[in-house]
Amino acid sequence: MFARIDHIGIAVEDLDAALALYERDYEMVLVHREVVEEQGVEAVLLDVGENHVELLAPLGPDTPVGKFLAKRGPGIHHVAYQTTDIVAELERLTAAGVRLIDETPRTGIRGSSVAFLHPKSSGGVLTEIVQPSHEGH
Ligand code: CO
Q: Are 122 and 128 in contact (CB under 8 A)?
């Protein structure tokens, strides 16, 4: 079972320009900023109550987010649901017939464990499952 929405992932061309909107105008608190080479992004997490917004800027045009921006422009990229046991959740989803991009969890930002479901199985919405690390929240 999903515990709650962990974050909404938003693809942006320019992180600092996006932060002018989210941090300055929306007054969200920036809690983390990290380059994730493996995923080809620089990511920023902002707090919205107990949930987050994740801004994603591509490290280059040939990265997944770079290709997303070229095709669809800036905007909502994915929805992430939080779970306390990602391995059990992925097993349950597989048994339910949901296709996965990540068969096993990989490391996300702030040491979280993450896995993406296949958009063809999730109604066209790129969906991420997140189990936060103990240091996160
Ligand atoms: Co995410």
A: no
Domains of the chain, start order: 4-131 (3.10.180.10)
Cα(20) to centroid(ligand 1), Å: 20
Nearest by Cα to 2 from 66, 79, 59, 76: 79
**102 CA distance to ligand 1 centroid (A)?**
13
In this predicted model, what pLDDT tens digit does every residue of 12-55 receive, in sequence order? 999 999 999 999 999 999 999 999 998 899 999 999 999 999 99
Cα–ligand 1 centroid distance for 74 (angstroms): 15
Note the pLDDT tens digit of each residue in 90-105: 999 999 999 999 999 9
Full-model pTM = 0.92
